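Final report, Chapter 2: Outcomes

The project's central promise was a pipeline that accepts a single protein chain and returns its three-dimensional structure in a standardized token representation, suitable for archiving and comparison. That pipeline is now operational. To close this chapter, we reproduce one record exactly as it appears in the project archive, with the input sequence first and the structure output second.
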Amino acid sequence: MSRRLIRIVLLVNIILVTFSARSAYAAQTAPGPLGGLLNQVPDSNISRTVIWYGSLGDFERLLGITLNSPSDFMKLSRQQQTAYLLDANQTGKQIYYSPFSGLDKYATWQKTFGINPYSIDREVTVGGSPNWYALLVGKFQSSAIVAALQKLGYKSAQVGNVTIYSSDNGQALRLAGSVYNRLVVSDTQIIAAPSDPAIQAVLPGSGNPLGADPTYAALVSGLEGTAAIPAGTQLLSAAVFDGSYLIDKVITSDPLAASVGKTLNANQLATLRSQLALKNEKLLPRYKAAAIGYRRTQKDRFFTIVLVYDDPAMATQANQILTDRLPRYGSFQQNGRQLFAGWSVTSKITAANNLQVLTVALQLPAQTDVSWIDLITNHDIGFLAAGSQ
């Protein structure tokens, strides 16, 4: 073989190897549905609190069903209905959907706003009421929605390339509260917010994408990746927190009082605190960000807890503390009931963006009334309590 031919063959091989490596890297780093949505969320004071994510569309595809209205649910088999209600029931639900979706007010929502809640594929709700907004992704008839808004008296204003529809109309307020006071509408996405500051916080150019932040990108890699989770599971829902916000504002330095302080008197609090032996529990090292997610296959269901650290030693310490406490965690809301007793718990620490990502997975039993959404909304997540700054 001539030297020239050898050089050509070597050059071709180098190009092929480089292309394969770049393709593999792109496949590994391409964001999933949650990561893609966080790339549309500007980094701001609102987004660095809590972000809720849910995808009833992915859930339907997982179960092999399609729902366009409540009547479609009645056509499902009993087994399919049971499987759907196991995760999407109004009480004890595992898949988040917000007041922005209108799902609980289907008939009047579609009639009033021209929006079919069942056409929402995925959503993120950023922040908490009243400082919050939502991104609703799906397939919409924007012309019908705009006509409905105009009928309700909404006014339009152009901000850059975006048209914002605004109203404090009585009919809309009675049905939706304030969540639809400001709207941006297209055939594939709806942005909804209760106020001008909230809608301005999400408009293009409002800030760098939160999903591009190394800490949040690492957090999402734990939620959407396969660390500690069997391959083939689908992330259907999650809550994503800035670390300091969750530790200091939600859980606080007194997690028990943060959860039940408004329903128990001082003596009852002291009794429960003693019963749970909280003074003997170790606190986690402070984490940069945290998330709780819900993943499943058609058969198996998992809660996932993801914490992001700078230091490998801190991640290792957190792994030891968390995996020790979870199986015996006594619920604040249920008088010390051990919520995860007998559940399978696995964990793994991975590296992402020069950060340490701790992922802990808890496999749900076939029958349970434990809802991760309820645990968060009731502040019954003392297992994520961390030390002070």
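Archive annotation: Residues 213-384 form one domain.
This record, like all others produced under the grant, will remain available to the consortium after the project formally closes.
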